[in-house]
Structure formats: C-alpha cells, structure tokens
Amino acid sequence: MSGTECIHGFENQLCDSCFPKAAPAKPVTRATTSSRTKRVPGAPRASSNKLPVLADQRVYHVTHISNLENILRTGQLVAAAQIETPILDVSSPLTRELRGTASLSTGESVDRYVPFSLVPESNAWRELRDGAAEPRWSDAARTASSTDFVFLVTTIRALGDDAVLADGDAAASLTRFAADEDTKTRMLGNLRADELTDDAEVLIHGSFAFDEIQLVGVASDRARDRVKQLLDAASFATKVAVYPPWFIQ
Q1: pLDDT of residue 1
Q2: Is 99 a catalytic residue?
Q3: 33 labelled as ligand-binding?
Q4: Per-residue confidence (pLDDT) for residue 51, from 0 to 100
Q5: Could you tell me the pTM of the whole model?
Q6: SS3 sequence of the chain
Q7: Which ranges carry the DarT domain (predicted)?
Q8: Domain with 212 in it: what CATH number?
Q9: Is-catalytic flag, 186?
C-alpha cells in the first residue's frame, strides 16, 4: 500500500474519511469602503488554485451491479439510446421519453450521451438511493437495494475534449451546455462557487471505454468480491474500493 492510499483502497486522497478536507478559513471582516467592487450576479468568479483544474475533476456514473457484466462484455458504457433492454432499467418511461426528445446544440438527443455526475452525492443518486419515489424512476428502481449499485469513477480528462458539461439535468428545458474548454471551465467554476454541482451532468457521446474507468466504488466486501470476479473474467485490472458512505442514506 502506497503512502497516499487509504484503508478503503482509494488513492490520491480520494477518501474523505482518511483524508478529510481542511475547513475553509473564515474570511476576515473588514469595513466596507466605497472602492470595494461587488460581483455582478452571473459574472465569472475568480479562479482558486485550491480547486482542481477542469481536466482533473472526478466524475461518477452509477449503475446496478447486474448491468456491469454486459458493460464488461462489450468493454464500454453505452448511451441509453443504444441499449434495447438493460437487465435493470432504473429510468421510467417518462424519463426515457424526456431524454429522447431533449437535444443538445449538436441536434442530437440527450439519450445518445453517456451521463456522469460531478459529485458522488448527486440529486439523482440521492433520490435513487432513498427509495426512488419520484416519477423519473422505474418500479425496478424502487425495489432495488442501494448496496447493489456501483460507482464507476473517472475524470473529465479521461472523457476527452468532446465531453459536454450541463449545468443541470440534461433533459430540463432551462439547462445550459458547455462544449469548449474555456466555457466548461467557467461553468464548472460557477457551479462550484454556487454549490450547484448536485444536478450537473457531464455527457460523452455514444460510448465510453471501460478501460478508462479508474475506480469502481462498492458498498461492501461482498460486492467487491463479486465485482472483482467480473473484472477478472473480462480481463480488466480496474481498482475496486469499498466505500460505504456513498451508499448510506
């Protein structure tokens, strides 16, 4: 085990338990002066060297463990529009319709992109984990156990230059998209500053090679053993880490 790897199997200080983030310093209160400039709402914020650059931003794709075998067999995550019948489909017919009719500036529908979230505790995962009562989830999602899902973790760098950043649910009417690096960097900075990363999505067109997945996060030792069996059978050496906080309500 390396010096930067925690007991849960994470590297590069990924684990918030073993490598807790320092509390932000309290700003010093100063008297208001006439020379102080107020930020205009919506204007770009100053960048912070403490934040990872765009390329190093981790992204997360959640799937049920029963779907993982097919992903490994083909060697790639595939957009919903290309999947006829997932073994366990968590999306309701309404969600399928919305993502099949909403489109990006490219003219292609959202369901032709593989979605990733910017944070593990995304609103979509929170709903799914906590019972999937909302209309966007299927009956199968409501009966599934959160501990039977897995997190597939990579970075925007691995997704490549064609990745598209959405500042909310990609199928929502008011969601904005960023495709070039400068626009994505600005949008990501604003999302972080306003703490609005929970709904944001990163989209990759068509498919994404599984060998670019850097980590599979699971809820238990039992799930880790099952995932390792699947990875070995498909000749993937992807790291598997048990991290219960991602799966606990």
Answers
A1: 44
A2: yes
A3: no
A4: 53
A5: 0.81
A6: CCCCCCCCCCCCCCCCCCCCCCCCCCCCCCCCCCCCCCCCCCCCCCCCCCCCCHHHCEEEEEEEHHHHHHHHHHCEEECHHHCCCCCCCCECHHHHHHHHHCECCCCCEHHHEEEEECCCCCHHHHHHHCCCCCCCECHHHHHCCHHHEEEEEEEHHHHCCCCEEECCCCCCCCCCEECCHHHHHHHHHHHHHCCCCCCCEEEEECEEEHHHCCEEEECCHHHHHHHHHHHHHCCCCCEEEECHHHCCC
A7: 57-248
A8: 3.20.170.20
A9: no
